Structures are given as C-alpha cells and as structure tokens.
Amino acid sequence: MRQRIFAVFFSCLLLVLTFIALHASFQYFPKVSFLKNLPVLSQATLRPTVSLDDTLNYEARQDVQTRTSWNAPIIWELMFDPNFYDKKHLEAKTTVALTVFAVGRYLDAYLNTFLTSAEKHFMVGLPVTFYVFTDQPEKVPNITLAPRRHLKVIKVERYSRWQDISMMRMKTISEIIEKELRHNFNYVFCLDVDQEFKGRFGSEALGESVAVLHVYYYKLPKTQFTYDRNPKSKAYMEEGDYYYHAAVFGGSCDAVKALADYCYLNTMEDKLNNVEALWHDESHLNKYFWLNKPSRILSSEYCFDPRINYMTEVIVHRLVWAPKQYAKLRT
Fold first, then answer.
1. Where on this chain does an alpha-L-fucosyl-(1->2)-beta-D-galactosyl derivative bind (predicted)?
2. pTM exceeds 0.90, yes or no
C-alpha cells in the first residue's frame, strides 16, 4: 500500500516539476516589434461582434455538406455575400489577430510569401495585426501594410525537434492571448507558415470556434480518418465527426485559448508517459473538437493542396499549401 501511495505521489511531483521546467525554458520576449500605436480597446475580454449565420444560403451548394449535425455552418463559396459580411464587420469595428510561427529554416523558405499574400487576401479592410513568432527576428521582412494593419515580431526559442516546436506553439499562443490579444482583438486565427493566400480569406470565416476540414479526408469514410488510435495517448479517439487540419484554426480569444491549453496540457501528459500522439498537436486538436464542437467549419477552400486536380467542388482556392521541403527544413 505504501509503495502505491509513493508511486502516485512521485508521478504527480514529476508532472509538476516538468511543467515548471518547461515554462521557465520557453518564455517569449518581445525583442523586436514593427507594431506602432496598437490601441488597448478594453481591459475586459473582447467578444465576437456579429452573428450573420442566418444570412447564409445553405441551399446554394447541393454538391457538398453545408451544415453539421449540431447545426454549425460549413462555409463554401456561393453560400455568403462577401460585401454584406464585410460591411457588418466594419460597422461592428471587428478586430482580428493572426499568429504564425517561422522558426529555423522555415523563415527563409516561407515567411515572406506568407505575409505578402496575407496582406493581400486575409481579412482585407479590417484592422489586422500579424504576430510573427521566430528565433530570428532580425530576418523578418518589413512588408508594406495598409492602414490599421500591423506586424509584430516576438522572439521565441528554437527547439531541435520540429515536434517540440509544434507542441510549444500551443503554449505560446495561450500566453500571448492572455497577455495581449484578449484585450485588443475580437478574433484570432492561427496558421502554419508554409502556406500562401491565393484568394479572399475574409470575414465570413469569423466565428466563436473555427476549424477547417482537412482536404485529404473530408470525402473519405470515417474509418479512414487518421485519429490517434493509441489508448495510451490523451489524443486517443475511437470515433469523431470530421478530420480537421491543424494548419488553420481560430475563433474568439477565449475559445482559441481553451483549445491551445487543452492541446498543450494533454501533450505534456503524453510526454510524461513517454507517448507521442500520431500527428502531434493535430491529433490533440481533433480530440478537442470532438469533445467541444466548433461553431463554424471552413471548407477545404481555406486550406487546399494545389496538387489535387480531382476535387471539382473546391471551386475557389483561398489558401494553398506551399511546396513541402521536409527533408531540408526539418533537419
């Protein structure tokens, strides 16, 4: 009996010490910033500003699913009036933050294209601040931005394994939301850097809790979804609704922080037990959205692989995957 009590106590102590050590080793430092005169709109959490889902035309697309079983919209081209959405969000003074991580070789390979295309297509007309997290702030391109659009660079530590970079992204997102974003923005989107905007990624995408359908899985039977099937992992799933892509997620600051905290803490518990989820933070994200249904789902228009030529229902490519260079960039 004493041995069991000691074992439980030791495990709990080890978990606490691990969290403390990682927290101490991964503090972000706003060393370089191109952001000027960002107004603090409120000391309270800013809530989402408008709800326009009753204006969506769910019948406009007969070839795809436009609504989930829990009545959340799945956004496709032709379902919404972009001018109406933008007008209402401008009237509501909606503000948006976008976070992106460009660590190691990913900065040189992708960041300039990501930022310049985002400025051209992401939430055009709305106040937007791009938050770039990098280990090389001096190399971040200083792109030309429209009025009320800003760029802020925050220095982070570089980890030797890309899996650890992916894991710690969630912790950093949670911290920056708590420290800054929740006081200044109605919504936050979190995107992978190895992507390029090709078309409108606008206010129709905004919602309380937003996920995106993975382009390779949304037409497949659920038995082929690559959920984590390891019962030892906190990401373990026997079933789910859809398979979501972790390259794009967003929502209100509170909702995104809840997602980030969930993914980080469960990843850390796996790490303590010498377990690594199949697709890392994406596996934990899918588990979170199974337990906490997103209020809005973006179709694969919002995260498309341009090598695909057989998905004719994706008639607009808003955000596309950049060519992957894993062998070179993840060394």
1. 214, 226, 282, 305
2. no
For the chain, the straight-line distance linking the first and the last C-alpha, in angstroms and rounded, comes to 48
Residue 164 belongs to some domain of the structure: yes
CB atoms within 10 A of CB 322: 16
Percentage of the residues of the chain whose pLDDT score is greater than 70: 81
Instruction: Let me know if residue 253 belongs to a domain.
Output: yes
Alpha helices in 144-252 (DSSP H): 162-179
CB atoms closer than 10 angstroms to residue 198: 17
DSSP state string for 8-39: HHHHHHHHHHHHHHHHHH---B---B------
- Bin 274: left if φ > 0, else alpha if -120 < ψ < 50, else beta: left
Q: Is 106 annotated as a binding residue?
A: yes
Find the CATH number of the domain harbouring 86: 3.90.550.10
304 is in an annotated binding site: no
Q: Is the pLDDT of residue 19 over 50?
A: no
Instruction: Work out the average pLDDT over 93-122.
Output: 97
Instruction: Please check if 102 is assigned to a binding site.
Output: yes
Active site residues: 282
Backbone Cα Rg of the chain: 20
CA distances from 275 to 12, 231, 285, 324 (A): 17, 10, 16, 26
The verdict on residue 288 lying in a domain is: no
CA angle 211, 277, 250 (to 5 degrees): 20
Count of structural domains within the chain: 1
